[in-house]
Amino acid sequence: MDQAEQSAWAALVKDLKVDQGHGVLGAGILIYDPHGGVVYEEGWFREEVSAEAKVLMHAVLSDVVLARTHRVDLDGHVFHVVENVYGNICAVGRRRKMGLISQRFSMGILVVMFRYPYTLQTAVPVVAKFGQRLRA
């Protein structure tokens, strides 16, 4: 990926870096293309998650049914799926101190990782609104 593409994705996800007084909402942001290639990553996904784990996570997220999937494993971090709406998942980690939210759109899948003090209740509206813009 060239610098211009990387800059375009960085500008796109800028809205997910809102600071609501408790730090930045997206502790990690990852974007897959429709074929499972990582087109953008930052934060937790770049620092803590291996390439193999990202490939496995894409397989889970691209399974439209997701009825068989109740958890996402990322290099020792386990996230339990608590909500699945049309393949957009919400999953929480250990003691609900971290979580994942995915949004499907025509150019791929966006995944946002959040950490305490943010919760599903505070993070989902921001990410869902961003997902609606991506799908528009």
Notable traits:
single chain, 136 residues, 7-stranded antiparallel beta sheet, 7 strands
Written account of the structure:
- The protein has 136 residues and is an alpha+beta fold.
- The protein has one domain: Dynein light chain 2a, cytoplasmic (Beta-Lactamase, 2-Layer Sandwich).
- It contains four helices and seven strands.
- It has a seven-stranded antiparallel sheet, with helices on both faces.
- β6 and β7 (108-115) form a beta hairpin.
- It starts with a helix and ends with a helix.
- The model has no long low-confidence stretch (mean pLDDT 84).
SSE blueprint and pairings:
Layout: H1 3-12, E1 28-32, E2 38-43, H2 44-48, H3 51-62, E3 71-74, E4 77-85, E5 88-92, E6 98-105, E7 108-115, H4 120-135
Antiparallel strand pairs: 1-2, 1-7, 3-4, 4-5, 5-6, 6-7
Protein name: Roadblock/LAMTOR2 domain-containing protein
Summarize the structure.
The protein has helices at residues 3-12, 44-48, 51-62, 120-135; strands at 28-32, 38-43, 71-74, 77-85, 88-92, 98-105, 108-115.
Structure class: alpha+beta
- Which term fits the overall shape? globular
Strand content: 25-35%
Strand order of the largest sheet: 2-1-7-6-5-4-3
- The total tally of domains equals 1
What is the strand tally?
A: 7
The total of helices stands at 4
CATH architecture: 2-Layer Sandwich
Distance between the termini: 25 Å
* Poorly predicted tracts of residues: none
Query: Helix and strand succession?
Result: HEEHHEEEEEH
Per CATH, the class reads Alpha Beta
What is the CATH third-level topology name? Answer: Beta-Lactamase
